[in-house]
Write a structure and sequence with these properties.
The chain is of the alpha/beta class and 341 residues long. It is built from ten helices and ten strands. 41% of the residues lie in helices and 18% in strands.
Amino acid sequence: MQKKLTYILAIESSCDDTSVAILKNDKVLANVVANQEIHAQYGGVVPELASRAHQQHIVPVVDQALKLANVDKKDLDAIAFTRGPGLLGSLLVGTSFAKSMALALNIPLIAVNHMQAHILAHFIDDAAQKKPEFPFICLTISGGHTQLIKVNDYFDMQILGETIDDAVGEAFDKSAKILGLEYPGGPLIDKYAQLGNPLAFQFPNPKTENKLDFSFSGLKTSILYFIQKKEKEDVNFSKNNLHDICASIQYTIIQILMERLVSAVKATGIKNIAIAGGVSANSGIRKVLQDAENSYGWNTYIPKFEYTTDNAAMIGIVGYFKFLNGDFDPTSISAKARMKF
């Protein structure tokens, strides 16, 4: 007989953050994240260093999460973990630990798709966010993904459009690198954009054959050539115009995202719109989507900040829904760097 209360321990280790959460049903009791600052000096995530750091962090992070939640490991009902997509070395650490813990406690093991988790983070029971109504369209934006997803139910999702080259998070970070900003540069562009004129400089909006697909490779190249040309004329151009450049870059990226989102609404007739993924923390994107409730008549759903970046709470909510369905995995399951819905 199923317990009225279900306790899930969730592990997220897809990239450079080691995170462990404890959920009681759909409520988060603890959501601990250990960041890896070492990558900043390299201007990006170094996979080998990331996997080693996960090995160092996983045990103390699990211990801290259990203590914060005031839950004994013997009370856990299942272990959920990120199977993929992500960096294989990082995924292997979380997968191996989850399998070992599930075996030791003799409780179910639940594999979770990282991208589904970003979307379903909206269903965490938290007063700071409202839950979307089905069906809804989710704009999933991160350092590795840019997708428009039609979400019919918790595990019934359809990709309407996606990037044909680079992800939006990469476009932000590479643009920041061109400007000489520290890694990760996306949040810095967002910070400086708030102080600048978004119409100061014009950058192209790359077109795609499918109106719901995205392309950011050409945009990155145009920004690079623009900066190189201007700095030949004035070596201090980027420094003296940083706020306006960042505002113009952010404005262009948001226009690209919104253009595809509007097309998706027209194609499906669905006006329930959500965003998910690390880039959904961007203040400009959040504001434009909030404004869309009035300008387009949409119902918009914006996740709480702590559920936007990689975190184990989102893995836990998927684990909870899968637990209710009795959808468990064998301990022979393996991590996958590339995964589809």
